[in-house]
Structure formats: structure tokens, C-alpha cells
Design brief:
The complex is a heterodimer. By secondary structure, chain A is an alpha/beta fold. Chain A is built from 16 helices and eleven strands. Chain B has a two-stranded antiparallel sheet. Classes of the chains: A alpha/beta, B mainly alpha.
Chain lengths: 510, 99
């Protein structure tokens, strides 16, 4: 039954509905696969076999009684460890939250449970979602299933690696500057950042609240649409949640056609700094879309070149404020300082200083200090204030570009997966990974990444990004679905079929 | 020339309640200097007539109906506390002897 892990979520769902396979069998197959390969991949920080199988058995019982279930009922899923799960540890990849068991579910998780998706476990990530490689996880990095010596992207590298390694058909990610799309790009999987406000943030460990957005991590565009429709939509518990119906995403995939669709190639997201093979696969993908009837135009978004700088002021500013809650008082780590230099015992401030020193890793410390600087009196206007103006300019660039094009496209990331350790202590080099993805977060528009092929020079996956106007998420699904179909025809099967067998997998020496 | 000195970093870390060691200051301060120099380029295009954006969507404050909703029990709220006393969060002293 191990081939159950090779099915798409949609394909597995059909077999569950047809009664050809039970949810317990499907869930067990994925738990077995995790047991086989996760020692090498390290996509998971916590596996909840008992909880997943209990949920699976419940779905099987309800289905057996003839209950009308959600189309994805019984399809197991992995959840990024930034998302609160009642009764299942949630660490955000940080020592500060090690062992924390949330007393409530994020709205996303409430919806997953209500729809009957067994939760396999929690996936690895850079600490508090700060990073592009999972190397800033306090619990060790995840590994790219295409080459275990390389990064799976970040911050949601665990979710992408889990899906790419067939440990889960679906996963939840979160994307503040590219943390769903960049891991998707470097692992040959699909990742979607919905319109800001499209998916509830209630129960997400907050990084940068005006940028954070949760979304689907999958192997196919249709699976992403199925999961997006399940977790998306208005939530009264999130004051930034959009109180309007979502566009029909699954229908957009099923009836996808790009005839007459205007596709804008963003001049500033390509060219210099982009790997040759990444550009080649991107150019071919654009040609395929043109061949399918799309109208290709070049658009210019001149302020995108300032996006990186603005992002790395806005994000640290918001993060320094959000992470102030880790004060060692009500939950999370509390460290007593060794020596406080006075006789009356450590004060709350002494404990905070020691706890945050021990609990945060380098990248969290860098960003908290940077944010504290950008927000401090005397520097606020020059840094945070200027970054907010650039944010306006980036949004205006998008608005102008969407006058001329229905969607915008670019390579998702400038390069394929780099080697673990290569950039871990070079923050600016690490930040450049987000250069093509973060403009969408600044403006709140949705973005989808799907594989465009393998780069010739290293044989590793490259990603193709589709951006749409806010609340027009259906457009990126339409274009993504057509491109996926054309590429599958060209490749003769899914790109992930070409990934090497993993050590520990059945028939492969560990 | 924008700048952030080692002393600045030490002061900011204290403001952010992070007790950085000398070795960490040696490591992080030069990195932060490079980052600050890089992100300062936002000032090149931040003209006075550009309005700031704090949020991607034009949202307004949201109110819910004033109806009691289920919340956490005291035990649930305290379950993850580092220390608990008499069904309350137990915290270190907040004042010094001199206060």
C-alpha cells in the first residue's frame, strides 16, 4: 500500500470516497513513510500518530454510516509548527516555546479538524519563521529531498520537504516574505500565499502581522485550490480577515484556460542575479503560456528594487514588537540568571534578559535588534517611516502593472537550492532569496509558485511565480493550472518522479 | 552615512531585553552594521509627498456583538505557565529594594 503516498490529495480523496481505501490505511501509509525517510529529511518536529489515526478512524466510521463529508475528509495533512494545535506541541522552531502545548486551535486547524483531515504532525521551520533555509530552526535543519546536503527553503522548509518527500500529500505553510513560495520553488512543489486577509491568522504565532499569511503547500495546483478553499474565508476571530466570499478556486483550476489572458513579465524580477537555468525554465514556461493563447507583455515595477530594503525594516519592526510577548511570565521558557550582582534575587527584568538571551537564536536576535533600532526615537522617520513609503510605492507599481496585465509572473527565487551552511551566517545573502516573493507581501496580493523544471547546471528544481491582484486569487490558479498541464505533458509525468530515492525508503539502503 | 555601532547594539539589546554576551556583540554588531547600511536605501525614494502604508488592505476596526463567548478556563490558561501560585501566574519580583 506504500504507493498511497504517491497520490495527489485530490486522487487520494477520490479513492477514499469510492471506498477503495480507508483513511486509516492512507494515514498509516504516510506515518510509515515518515518513519522510513524522516530521519534523513527531518521535515517533522513532532509526529502525532495516535491523534492522526484516531481522526482517520472517525472519518472512516462517519463515511461508513453514509455521512456527507468534506471532499478532503480523511486525507492526512502536515501543519507548520507556527500554527497553534490544541494538545499538540507548537514550538515555532524556537527554544522559547519548546514543549508548549497550546490550549486552543488556530482557526485553520479548527477547519481542518472539522473537515476530517488527520493531522500527521508539525513541520520544521526557521525560528519564528525568520529565514529562508530552516537552518535557523532551534531543532536542526530540514533537508531537501532532491539533495539532502541542500536547504529545503524557509521558513516553511519542513512543510515543503514533507510534501516533496511524500511524507504528506498536503501541508499548511505561512508566508511573510516568501516562506511558502520559496520552499515550494526549491523542492519542486506547489505553494500559495493567498491574498492578505484571505486565510485567518487567528492562532498563528505572529511574526509580522501586516505581512503574515497562511496557505497551502502541495504537489499539484488542484490540491492547493482544494486546501485553500477549505482553510480560507472570513473568520470573525481575525480582525484583518476579509468579510467577503472567496473566488471559486477549484473551479478556476478545473476549467482553466489562458486564452486572451494578459501575462505581465516583471522586468525587475529576472535578469542579473538570477541563475541561468532558473531563467531558462522561466522563459520556456512563458513561451508555453503564449502558445496556449495568453498575451505576454513586459511590465516594469521600478520600486520593487527597493522592496527588499523596505521589507527588512518593516518585518523586523513588527517582529520586535510581536516577539516582546516572550517575557517568561505566562508561558514559554523561563531562565533564572546565574548572577544578578545584587542580593535580593533576580527581578522580572533580570529573568527576561536571561530568558530571551537563552531562548532566541542569532537570526531572531538580529531582527529584534534591527526592529528596535528602526522604531527608536530619532531613527523612526528615516527607517520605519521611509520603509512604509516604499511600501506605498510598491503597491502603486502593482496597481499600474495590473492595469496592463491580468497576472504578473517571475521566477519564484533567483537560484535553485543552495547548500546547507552556505549562507547561514551571511544575513544579506540569505535575505536575497526573498527578493521576488516579498513584494507580494508588502502589497497584500496573492502569489502562487509551481515547478518550472530542473536547472540544467545542477539538476535542481526551479520555480515559476504567478501574482494576481488582491482578492483575485482565482487568476493565479487559472494560469498555474494551465502551465502545470503543459509542463506535465512536456515532462511526461510529475517533476518529483525524477527526485532521487531517499535513504531509508523501502528498497533503498539507509 | 547611516551607522549602528557596537555600543548602539548593546544598548538596543538591553532595550529589547536580550542579555547579549561580549562574544555575541562582536559577532552581531558588524552584521547589523552591514544590514543597516543596505536597508538605508529606502530613504532614496521616500519623498515627503508619498503617504506611508502600514497595512496592505484598507481595513477598519472590527467589533463583534457584545455577547459572551467561551474562553479558556483558568487551568487551561495556567497550564503552560513557568510557575503558578494560588491559581495565578507567579512572577519574579518587579521592584528592587531601592524602589
Amino acid at each position: 500500500m506504500s504507493d498511497l503516498t504517491r497520490l495527489s490529495a485530490g486522487g487520494l480523496a477520490e479513492r477514499l470516497v469510492a471506498g477503495e481505501v480507508s483513511s486509516v490505511e492512507a494515514t498509516q501509509a504516510h506515518l510509515d513513510r515518515i518513519g522510513e525517510v524522516d530521519g534523513a529529511v527531518h521535515a517533522f518536529l513532532h509526529v502525532d500518530a495516535e491523534g492522526a489515526l484516531t481522526q482517520a478512524a472517525e472519518v472512516d466510521r462517519r463515511r461508513g454510516r453514509g455521512a456527507v463529508l468534506h471532499p478532503l475528509a480523511g486525507v492526512p495533512i502536515a501543519v507548520k509548527d507556527l500554527v497553534a494545535t490544541k494538545g499538540i506541541p507548537t514550538t515555532a522552531g524556537s527554544r522559547l516555546l519548546e514543549g508548549w502545548v497550546p490550549p486552543y486551535d488556530a482557526t485553520i486547524v479548527t477547519r481542518l479538524r472539522a473537515a476530517g483531515l488527520p493531522i500527521l504532525g508539525k513541520t520544521n521551520m526557521d525560528e519564528f519563521a525568520m529565514g529562508s533555509s530552516t537552518e535557523h530552526s532551534a531543532f536542526g535543519p530540514s533537508h531537501n529531498p532532491w539533495d539532502l546536503a541542500r536547504i529545503p527553503g524557509g521558513s516553511g522548509g519542513g512543510s515543503a520537504a514533507a510534501v516533496a518527500a511524500f511524507e504528506a500529500p498536503l501541508a499548511i505553510g505561512t508566508d511573510t516574505g516568501g516562506s511558502i513560495r520559496q520552499p515550494g520553488s526549491v523542492t519542486g512543489t506547489v505553494g500559495v500565499k493567498p491574498t492578505y486577509g484571505g486565510v485567518s491568522r487567528y492562532g498563528l504565532v505572529a511574526l509580522a502581522s501586516s505581512l503574515d499569511q497562511a496557505g497551502p503547500v502541495t504537489r499539484t495546483v488542484l490540491d492547493a485550490a482544494l486546501l485553500h478553499e477549505l482553510v480560507g474565508g472570513h473568520d470573525p476571530r481575525d480582525s484583518t480577515s476579509i468579510d467577503a466570499p472567496m473566488p471559486a478556486l477549484v473551479d478556476a483550476v478545473r476549467g482553466a484556460d489562458v486564452t486572451g489572458v494578459r501575462i505581465g513579465v516583471v522586468r525587475e524580477l529576472g535578469g542579473e542575479g538570477y541563475q541561468t537555468g532558473v531563467r531558462a525554465r522561466f522563459d520556456e514556461a512563458v513561451e508555453l503560456l503564449a502558445g496556449a493563447g495568453a498575451e505576454v507583455v513586459e511590465v516594469s515595477c521600478p520600486h520593487f528594487t527597493y522592496g527588499l530594503a523596505a521589507y527588512y525594516l518593516i518585518l523586523p519592526s513588527e517582529a520586535s514588537s510581536n516577539l516582546a510577548r516572550y517575557d517568561a511570565m505566562r508561558y514559554g521558557l523561563r531562565v533564572a540568571p546565574d548572577d544578578v550582582g545584587h542580593g535580593d534575587g533576580p527581578s522580572a527584568e533580570d529573568v527576561m534578559l536571561a530568558t530571551r538571551e537563552a531562548g532566541f537564536g542569532d537570526e531572531a536576535k538580529r531582527r529584534i535588534i534591527l526592529g528596535t533600532y528602526a522604531l527608536s526615537s530619532g531613527y523612526y522617520d528615516a527607517y520605519y517611516g521611509s520603509a512604509q513609503k516604499v511600501r506605498t510605492l510598491v503597491a502603486r507599481d502593482f496597481a499600474a502593472a495590473f492595469e496592463r496585465a491580468d497576472v504578473l509572473v517571475s521566477p519564484t527565487t533567483p537560484t535553485t537550492a543552495f547548500r546547507l551552511g552556505e549562507k547561514v551566517d551571511d544575513p544579506l545573502a540569505m535575505y536575497l532569496n526573498d527578493i521576488a516573493t516579498l513584494p507580494a507581501n508588502l502589497a497584500g496580493v496573492p502569489g502562487l509558485s509551481l515547478p518550472s523544471g530542473l536547472a540544467d547546471e545542477d539538476g535542481l528544481p526551479a520555480g515559476f511565480q504567478v501574482l494576481a491582484p488582491a482578492t483575485a486569487d482565482d487568476r493565479m490558479y487559472r494560469v498555474g493550472a494551465v502551465l502545470e498541464r503543459l509542463l506535465l505533458d512536456r515532462w511526461g509525468g510529475p517533476l518529483l518522479d525524477r527526485a532521487p530515492a531517499l535513504p531509508g525508503a523501502r528498497g533503498v539502503p539507509a | 552615512m547611516p551607522g549602528i555601532s557596537r555600543d548602539d547594539v548593546a544598548n538596543l539589546a538591553r532595550l529589547a531585553r536580550i542579555d547579549l554576551s561580549e562574544a555575541e556583540l562582536d559577532h552581531l554588531a558588524p552584521q547589523l552594521q552591514v544590514i543597516v547600511e543596505s536597508v538605508a536605501r529606502v530613504q532614496e525614494v521616500a519623498d515627503a509627498d508619498v503617504p506611508p502604508t502600514s497595512h496592505p488592505l484598507p481595513v477598519v476596526n472590527v467589533f463583534r456583538d457584545d455577547v459572551v463567548q467561551p474562553g479558556l478556563s483558568a487551568d487551561e490558561a495556567l497550564a503552560a505557565a513557568p510557575a503558578v501560585e494560588q491559581q495565578r501566574f507567579s512572577v519574579p519580583r518587579i521592584l528592587g529594594e531601592e524602589a
